[in-house]
Model the fold of this input.
Amino acid sequence: MAADPSPLDIHSSGSFARIFDRSHLWVASETGVADATRLVAAAASARHGPIAEVIGIAEGGRTPAAAIAAHLDVPVRIVQARHNPTPAPYTQATGRVSCDVDGIPAGGLRGPVLLVDDICGTGATLAAVAGALATPGLRLISCVLCLNAGALMTPDLWVWEVRDWVVFPWEAVPNTPLARVDLPIPTEVHLR
Done:
């Protein structure tokens, strides 16, 4: 008998290297994020049917999850996960993720559930949270605003593919000599 598939499909090369061209900082504008969350909500519904609820991965997934849930008119919950050892730009991933889903009772989710984060750098955070939430029959749909080109997994939905550090409206812009370039206003959502 074949083993059950993992909650999210992770293809690992054993390396957790995000790709950073170090040519500039991408800056996600409030308008761009608002448009992205509206597009994601519409694409998630169209592709996966009615979404039962949204779970945001804090800290970065908190704001987009709340916006997507509002567009879908469904409840939002927040779980804690940490992958980066520091918020400093160009921090490479460790592959170690701490995850706290204590606020979600075992078996308390009814799907499909949209799992939201701001960025998928390697996929380790999405995989860790999905694994912690996994229950038989629960359908988790992964969604991020940005997908780093070096990610080891492809989420179900994403808006921008990036090859450099991204600063979101809820974050402080780091002190760096690199130019700041706005992410383009999105017009579509990428689907796996």
Notes: Residues 30-48 form the longest helix (19 residues).
